[in-house]
Amino acid sequence: MKKILIVSTSPRKNSNSEALALAFAEGAKAAGNEVDFVSLRGKTINFCRGCFVCQEKQRCVIRDDADEICQKALTADVLVFATPIYYYEMSGQLKTLLDRLNPLFPSDYAFTDVYLLTSAAEDESYVPERAVSGVEGWIDCFERARLAGTVFMGGVTAAGENPDHPALEEARAMGQNA
Prior knowledge:
Layout: E1 3-8, H1 16-30, E2 34-39, H2 53-57, H3 65-75, E3 78-84, H4 92-100, E4 113-120, H5 129-139, E5 146-154, H6 166-176
Helix pairs in contact: 1-6
């Protein structure tokens, strides 16, 4: 059994990227894993101050919702980030969270596999490339971690627009094999 932390970063309720995250969670639970699902919607996550106190204390000096998420990420075997694609890049919410996960860098973190789930109005295969590259840059700072998989749901705009999109089954299967 693996401990899996799934973070949905969309500000919209019932968003397409969150649907991917929930499908991944279904698959992971069906495989007998422990799943912790966190939505950033309604959470307060401030920008990193760049003070680097977290490198000494392994905890951020800012007390907001990012601190609790960081503590969950520390003990998770698998991290899953779900984001809408805005202007061919990850959401600002995800980028801000990744910056705030800086206390993990000097720690004895547990995660080895990281997954990225993305959705966008555009459906060309290159659409998620910059988001994937950004997450890979974050992963590169963690020598035991790797990008274990990605799923892209393209051609969707309105929340919950396409409940039969094939990417949902792909995310579910990926979760089952995580």
